[in-house]
Amino acid sequence: MSPEFLRFESVGKSFPGVRALDGVSFGVGEGSVHALMGENGAGKSTLLKILSGAYEPSEGTLSLDGKPVVFRSTAEAIEAGVAVIYQELHLARELSVAENLYLGHLPSRFGVVNRTQLLESARKQLDLLGEDIDPRAKVGSLSIAQRQMVEIAKALSRDAKVIAFDEPTSSLTTRETERLFALIKELQSQGRVILYVSHRMEEIFQICDAATVLRDGRHVETYATLSNVTVDTLIGKMVGRAIQDIFHYEPRPHGEVALEVDGIVGLGLREPVSFSVAKGEIVGFFGLVGAGRSELLKLIYGAEIPVSGTIKIDGRTIAPRHPSDSIRAGIVLCPEDRKKEGIVPIRSVMENCNLNARRNHSTFGFVIDETWERKNAQEHVDALAVKTPSLAQLIVNLSGGNQQKVILARWLSEKVKVIMLDEPTRGIDVGAKSEIYAIIYGLAKEGVAVIIVSSELPEVMGICDRIIVMRQRRFVASVPREEATAEKILELALPVSLPQREIELAAI
Fold this sequence. Notes:
Distance between the termini: 30 Å
Strand content: 25-35%
Shape: globular
Number of strands: 24
Number of helices: 18
Helix content: 25-40%
């Protein structure tokens, strides 16, 4: 075993009404890629924020190389050689790549930035990663994968010894993920200490050599090696129960056509798209990043206005010019970026639950019925098993899975005919996924037409009655569940034929 460099000892963290961490102890050795695992709300993010200096622990100690440290700010953590790369990347979009890399320690003389030295240093740092990124380019113009590489380059520019990755592959393609893994292996060979947070089990076994499991803010188990550990064992430790089949698919009768899209064209689509979804049917949309799936949903939802084509709900043509038009017609959307587009972060769980339906339960359209709001929110929080200390809790303080449940609760307060879910389980743990699938099945059984966009092929194959494949912003095919295989769906989705090994990697 490599010498222990990073150590959490009896670390605890309390917030008003919430015990986020309770006596967490484990260590990570030099040259180790150590998985940090647990359901949403298990305490992983809180622990990373303590490591980054964003939070101070309520009790316990954090040690680096055997020496106790207390970080009172993120600047102190960075100075000590700690870097945390979050799922929501912390970069200044309007600044250049070079400026982001050296923000806070720009090369200067007499207070004037030395631009030549800045660009030269940035190029060297990017070359070390094998990245062909213009250091003068604005970060906002880069792809998600390139931005992530900039975050890693930023950490290395400050000679970080400890690097934590929080769901780093959630927005990456298979090839980008493989490149990231190669980089992590290189960092491991240099003796860096890597903490790796992911809900994707196949990644844990591919990239990590050790793992620590948290549950409800407490340390459950640390595995010094994963050689004899199974996926079922880890899941059982994470959720406190065995989950053999998280999909639990059950066929159900379908009714008449609920949504009919005919020849719709608009921003993000290269050709007209036509399809229909019946009442009680779950239809999945699969494709690679950039296939046009999310853009299609926004056209149906009224977030973007179609150039041509028709949308019918229960046989009646609608022409949504705004999301409110679609909502009133019974079409709702849970967006891909729930933190940016799905929630109001500075508002409570109760307010987020009632955000849309309150128009039907207020006097004169603006006097809020607080009794109804509290009752409605509590009913849905209970029904969906939302983990929150109270209805007054700010929704931003909830885990990703519980935020997603609150968004679903908002639409369950409406008379929904069609619900569209864009990456509904991205960044959500196995236990919460199973609960969200149960909610989706419940909606379908009630006759709601369900559309799901997912980049996880096992998910669309596991829960959908039919899979529509898109490629390069075009409709390709509609495949019934009984005819769907991983190879068939991927061959339809991929722009060119790939060797079998790459098909297998994309299927993971």
